[in-house]
Amino acid sequence: LVVRLYGAAPVEAGLSAAFGGLTYAVAASQAGRLTALFERRLSLLVAANVALAAGLVLAATAPSLAVGGVGVTAMGLGFGVTMSLYRSMITGLAPADLRGGLVSVAESYGRLTATLGPVAMGAAIATLRPVVGLLPAVRWTVVGTALFVGAAGVGCLVAADRAPEPGHPPPPPAARRPHN
Fold first, then answer.
1. What percent of the chain has pLDDT above 70?
2. Cα 85 to chain center, whole Å?
3. Contact indicator for 15, 78 with CB cutoff of 8 Å
4. Distance CA 80, CA 134 (A)
5. How would you write the chain as a 3-class SS string?
6. Could you read off the pLDDT of 62-106 as tens digits, one per residue?
7. How far is it, in rounded angstroms, from Cα 45 to Cα 159?
8. Does the pTM exceed 0.85?
């Protein structure tokens, strides 16, 4: 993709991927320190999901490899923080006797999306390609995926944040006013 989008050499594509991986590793290793800078973990996770989605959009639409590198950096930072912190957030959503199962379900879902996501994106690209050409089809598919997954990630974080504490029943629904 990097070779076709930017006319870069394969070694530049490899360096771009390696830089994204390095950024991911650094962000993941510093997630605890980054959490301390925010009042709530939710704020950092939302920012990380936004960085991940925005970075993917930028990497797909950048006019040059250098600008795409900024997107790769944002993706690495967002993904590193997200993957590091979401597991700890998930463990807090269930009572102790159910935590292992919840983490297993979350990890299984992650593997499933990592498997089926590229298949779905390939199908979208194959559908768009005859209409708009290969590179626009790839860009539109990546941008659409980034926006959808970013919004879904933030939505899931907000829902998890609003969930009742483990072992505590949810508050009763607000009393409804009768309609006049």
1. 92
2. 12
3. no
4. 30
5. CHHHHHCCCHHHHHHHHHHHHHHHHHHHHCHHHHHHCCCCHHHHHHHHHHHHHHHHHHHHHCCCHHHHHHHHHHHHHHHHHHHHHHHHHHHCCCCHHHHHHHHHHHHHHHHHHHHHHHHHHHHHHHHHHHHHCHHHHHHHHHHHHHHHHHHHHHHHHHHHHHCCCCCCCCCCCCCCCCCC
6. 888 888 889 999 999 999 999 888 877 777 777 788 888 888 888
7. 13
8. no
CB-CB neighbours of 93 under 10 Å: 17
Tokens 């089926």 correspond to 116
Encoding tokens for residue 107? 């990890």
